[in-house]
Write a structure and sequence with these properties.
single chain; 427 residues; mainly alpha; two-stranded antiparallel ribbon; globular
Length: 427
Amino acid sequence: MSRIPRLLWILLIAGAVLRAGVIELRPKAALESAPEESENLDIARSLDLHQGFSLNGQPTADRSLLFPALAAAVMLPFHGSPKPVLYVQLLLSCASAWLLYRTGLKRFGSSAALLLCAAWLFYPGAILATALFQTTTLFVFLWIVALALYDRLEDNGFRLRDAVLLGLCAGLTILTRSIGLVLLLSLVLYVSGLRFGAFREVHWRSGLVILFTALVLIVPWMLRNSRAVGHFALTTNSGISLLAGEMTHESAFPSHEARDSIAARRPSLEENTPAPRPQLAAGEVWVRKLMRLWATDIGLWLNYFAQPNDPGLSRSVLWHILPVAVASIPGMLAVGLGAAGFLLVQTFRSRRLYLLQLLLGVAALFLTYGLPRDHFMFLPALLIGAAALWRPAVWVEAPWIRRAAVICTLGAFGGLWLLEGLSVAAM
């Protein structure tokens, strides 16, 4: 037993060293040049100067509350320097790996738990996000804490104080990114009536406590936004649109909509009469959204190397098929192995909760226009699903219908990724 903790500490130290190296090697002025990061930094400095949650001197709700507020508190003793925030993120990222290890240990044993821990510690996007002044690391940490708190709630017989703690954590996750609503909804639905075992009053009471506690945290922020910017919402930088494939601002590479618009105008440039922007069918837009599930990792690299007066959109010509494929492989593996784990192994603890989070996340992907380029919401459940595969004869012992489902699912994702790769290569 002594050997396993020693290996765990080796993994944690190696992951911390990698993250520190990425922090220290990031090009100078990249943080101030990257669009989202520079806004988070400006808001944090505004909070430090007691000017409120403001951007360019004006109240804003374009960014979620928690990360700039935490960053401001960390920066205060360091005269506004953002680097200590990145080292706090290093600690949070390693703590996420530790919690994943504990989660895997309860479900799959020590070997699978170590692999689960290592998967997060050495996932390139998780390493890179530590060096970015963004919400990703804090968001995933709080999500994984919520999963651990759910285990605590169930282990302790659905005690009131455990439900309150879980609701508080879910509320903080939402205040970090509004898509954390998927976490809250999945917990409430699962605890109230979708969990395994007999349904009892204590279950739906715990679900209501979780929901009410989270609302106590998030509603005051929404009221502030209503007074400050005229929107009773978590942020004004999100939205609901069934027919919007993605946000059109700069990202890993030009959006499909932007490329289609350029292509439509090109034949009429000589006549100075722009052609109308092509209209996309709902089905085509949704296919494009699914194709973008892996694009976050590419966008992280563009943020990391951001240069003054060189936005990500203009740098996107550097991303041809080979670097796109390399940057996307870890996300593809997480999706493929996670889906295979849930399809082949149907007996591990809280499986239905993780599946519910994935299904609600996909539903949110179809409804929103910003989420299609952000797969980090899915990673905790996907990594746990992949860890479920670490058992003997899992493929051989699975019924043929499940194996066929795995092949069809991986084929569908492979087709989507191939289409996206060819689209980017021919940009």
